[in-house]
Amino acid sequence: MAREHGRDRDDRDSEFTDKLVHINRVAKVVKGGRRFGFAALVVVGDQKGRVGFGHGKAREVPEAIRKATDAAKRGLIRVPLREGRTLHHDVAGRHGAGKVYLRAAPAGTGIIAGGPMRAVFETLGMQDVVAKSIGSSNPYNMVRATFDALKHQDSPRSVAARRNIKVSSLQSRRREGADDQAASE
Fold first, then answer.
1. How far apart are CA 70 and CA 22, in angstroms?
2. What are the S5 DRBM domain coordinates in residue numbering (predicted)?
3. What are the φ/ψ torsions at residue 113 (nearest 5 degrees)?
4. Cβ distance 117 to 136 under 8 Å?
5. Which of 149, 115, 130, 137 is closest to 19 using CA atoms?
6. Which of 55, 77, 99 is the last residue of a domain?
7. How many domains does one find in the chain?
8. pLDDT in tens, 23-80
9. pLDDT on residue 123
């Protein structure tokens, strides 16, 4: 029985893809020389709208990566994607001095983003997005700012549910607003 449970967990783990974003090496000076430690930043996703990041520290690189991957799987978030390929609307996120702007893009654009943000979008399964990082280029801050922006992403379905209306009436209101704006100009 215990074996079957372990196999199920392996199957569940295999559905995730993980990307190593950054490894930091730190040295502690001791009497005999230096002791090295490693910190890893890993992004994990199922390429269907779920993504998470984790941070792990250890004396060996593989152990730090394993700890970071486990932490990332514990903190997964679900992001609504339009047509399964891009964002529903433009959004900004920040963490510390790191600021990011994410923009929805037409089909065929691809992922236009810097290193840490690109890893998040690839593991998320997003195919078209334009992203800009402003401020801190620290990978930890960039990943956290990207996650802040993704948490503020709303789908039309969730907005309609919050307002207790149907999605179709939400879209017709949006068109009416665009017609009113065009008429006023």
1. 16
2. 16-79
3. -160, 160
4. no
5. 115
6. 77
7. 2
8. 999 999 999 999 999 999 999 999 888 999 999 999 999 999 999 999 999 999 999 8
9. 93
